[in-house]
Structure prediction request, 54 residues.
Amino acid sequence: MNIDPALRELLVCPSCHASFTDGDEELVCTGCGLAYPVRDGIPVLLVDEARTPD
Prediction:
């Protein structure tokens, strides 16, 4: 995934404020498990757009 490292350091889950791990074209929250899509290198950190944990 191609997200600027400086931006990556600032990103937290909008739902629980935990950090992220990389998924397949998504960022997965280490706290609540929501998976947020990354489109064209831009994380879409909208809870309504997130995929719930399996």
About this structure: The chain has one domain: 5-49. The CA atoms of residues 8 and 20 lie 9 Å apart. Residues 5-49 form a domain with the N-terminal domain of TfIIb fold (CATH 2.20.25.10).
